[in-house]
Amino acid sequence: MSKLAQLITARSKQIIVLWLLLLIATSLLSMREGANFTDSLSLPKSESQVASDLLKSEHSPDGLGSLQVVYASKDNSPLKPKDLKRIISAIKKLPFVDSISSPFAPGSQSMSADGKIAFSTINMRDLTLSTKGEKIQKIIDRANAKNHSKVQIEFMGANNQSGGDSGSHTSEIIAVLVSLLILLITFGSLTAALIPIIVAVSALLIASNLISLTSNLFSIATFAPVLSTLISLGVGIDYALFIVSRFRQSLRESHSVEESIMISLKTSGRAVIFAGLIVCLSILGLFLVGIDFLHGVAIATSISVLVTMCAAVTLLPALLMHVGVHINRFSIPKRTNKLKIAKKDDSKWQRWAGLIQRHPVKWATASSILLILFFIPATTMHLGTADAGNNPANSTSRKAYDLMSKGFGDGFAGPLILVASIPAGADTGVLSRLYEKLVQDADIAQVAP
Question: Of 131-135, 359-363, 428-432, which has the strongest mean pLDDT?
């Protein structure tokens, strides 16, 4: 680490420029090559995967080709055929739409009992992951253009519950703002708080670009970038916090800026590298789980952590080299520690550490009991599959889900589908008996044959 510290103190400007060039280069490459994330979340040998494979083998080879349009009366009166005719006709004329059902067709079960809520199922052809979002948006635009004020229309995908909604970066923005606030309280200085944020966000942008490029080589799930982003922000700010804290402490002990960077990298820098590599190895352990779509998650997250770790031990010290003794600028009154040697007895954290060291067994026992108490709720955890009911309240898919539940009952928008493979000459009476038993089950609201 001594040689790395010497290189950084001697070439700090060049290191900052290299990171800036890396950000520009990866951004340009990412824009040119694009991303190819996948929605395919297969679970080999699981019951749900076997059922899905059976459906695909007997019906459409592509499970992405359906979308539901939900209609609701705005004036609380029953829907009429003329209210939906223009919408259905307009959607049907789109070249990639294979068919669209009408709630008013004979034998249709897609109209609520009061006639105020209904839905149509759209089947699409020639659909791929790269064109799916664009085509769904065309359907939404066409339907909205032909709609009138009496009918509310919402959309929900049969296999992609987002229904064309685009993701936002709200969670990442909130995470950055909360982190900035915590760092500001911890350091008592805006400058000291901003530096870890700048390093973490820079590493995050580069990692995101690299993940987008990697998605063209490996199968990476659409949710992987969000997961890797939040992990990257967390470890990035954490790693930077270690090094900045050690840097400020060395300055308070009257070391020069160069010496402080040297000390920071030889102590906190080593810990950051060790922690980063351990995190990467742990995440890559997802390859051993045997679930294919988790491989891409492991790759994406490892890239984020690796880039963040490298930024913490190179870009961060280079920035500190230029900030130097001004690390405590823009301080919060009565919150910051000025650059002076602090007496050991003045440190609250040191007194706390001393208290624990004097009674290690008692504190270890108390903390173990506390951790066990925190673990107890996990023993009653109920796991389930997310559907459109988990989407943001203002999304069209969530509104469609709520309308379907209101009109047809809870669970209608997220049904459990039973699939049976019937060999030639097999007795189908067993399915009839199963149907009768399911109908009699008090916990089942409705069974559709």
Answer: 359-363
Does any domain span residue 445? no
- Statement to judge: residues 145 and 186 lie in one domain: no
Q: Check residue 268 and report its DSSP letter.
A: I
Residue 99 sits in a domain of what CATH number? 3.30.70.1320
Kind plus residue range of the DSSP H or E element containing 14: helix 12-33
User: Domain range for residue 122?
Assistant: 62-157
| Model pLDDT for residues 44-54, shown as the tens digit of each residue | 677 777 877 77
Contacts of residue 129, defined as CB under 8 A and 6 or more positions apart, other chains included, come to: 36, 37, 38, 39, 40, 64
H/E segment holding residue 73: strand 66-73
Asked if pLDDT for residue 241 goes beyond 90, the answer is no
CA distance 264 to 78: 71
Among candidate residues 92, 126, 157, the one where a domain is terminated: 157
Distance CA 420, CA 405 (A): 27
Q: What is the pLDDT of residues 305-319, one digit of tens each?
A: 999 999 999 999 999
Boundary residue ending a domain (341, 365, 395): 341
Q: Cα–Cα distances in Å, from 207 out to 196, 215, 216, 345?
A: 16, 12, 15, 42
Q: How far apart are CA 157 and CA 54, in angstroms?
A: 20
CA 410 to chain CA mean position, Å: 27
pLDDT in tens, 79-100: 888 888 888 898 888 888 888 8
